[in-house]
Amino acid sequence: MARTSSSSGEVEEEKGKEEEKKQLKQNQKQKKEALGWIEWLRGWVYLIYEMLFQRIIASHLQNPLPLPPANDLSCIVTGSTSGIGREIARQLAEAGAHVVMAVRNTKAAHELIQKWQTEWSGIGLPLNIEVMELDLLSLDSVARFAEAWNARMGPLHVLINNAGIFSIGEPQKFSKDKYEAHMQVNHLAPALLSILLLPSLLKGSPSRIINLNSIMHYVGFVDVEDMNVVSGKRKYTSLVGYSSSKLAQVMFSSVLHKRLPAEATISVLCVSPGIVQTNVARDLPKIVQAAYHLIPYFIFNAQEGSRSALFAATDPQVPEYCELLKADEWPVCAFLSHDCRPTNPSEEAHNIETSYQVWEKTLEMIGLPSDAVERLLQGEEVKCRYGA
């Protein structure tokens, strides 16, 4: 009788395990496939509030933002031939920093430098600014850029991932790497650049990685199994592409922030420039463009939109704040609002499980091993699928 009882118990235990496995599979099948309507509605309310009141909220800031001397800084600014990036590059250079304009259109960048040097003549020393080619629609280009910069064996103090696209109303496009264009330009390429430049950032520590994000990430959702939005589960629109890429950037930045040891003194943060009138408007339908230009009071110009990134790049208290979040094991990286004050990214950005899935999937997509960060910080060579 004892043996029978024991056997029955084992059978029951096995059945229990099978039920647990079935339940786990069922839960996986029922994984979140979109934002809940409350989260979605909350995101849009926040967006509207930001547009209507951003100028009032940021009224305490001067324009342009006064910067401390930056003579000892080497800074890379992507997408710096227009809009916010142009303002960031110019103002950092005028503050004394060595600025590298990492751009696709090198001719336009050289013309800008010539113009700035002429305007600056007689005010101070010539601007220390140069141009390097970088095409974010090519991960080969990103890897080659990082290799060329690291080969200098010099320090990098600030990396500003400013370049981005929002192809409003346009059909879905893919890069030659076969990734959805918004996802590659706004997230994958900056992620690859940030990791490959870690050796130079370590030489320049305390250093900073600053990602120009957007409040549009509040209405974004990332399906890790469908980063290119091709499965048909979600209908593709430019808004889906853009908001998803910006949310992925916050999630990836949060994990990178955690994986960088405190002794590396490399800060990772995202900043929102606010709602800014930039070249994005040229992609809008004409009727929307008309409305866009009718509300200039509510929308920042590029100089106003550059303030949060410039603050993140130069304020001495930013690294302390980033380390405080790390010490408190905060689930997300530092996020600065358009008024240069800390704020919380979206509720979805706090999803730790999805953030780690985004991290792993991103490394796979950009051709880096899972231990790339640790190995690069230890001075080891890491092979990337792209570049040389």
TrEMBL record:
Keyword terms of this UniProt record: Oxidoreductase
Stretches for region Disordered: 1-26
A GO term for molecular function: oxidoreductase activity
Biased composition (Basic and acidic residues): 14-23
Gene3D superfamilies: NAD(P)-binding Rossmann-like Domain (3.40.50.720)
Pfam families referenced in this protein's UniProt entry, alphabetically: adh_short
Protein family according to the UniProt entry: Belongs to the short-chain dehydrogenases/reductases (SDR) family.
Name of the protein in question: Uncharacterized protein
Organism: Carpinus fangiana
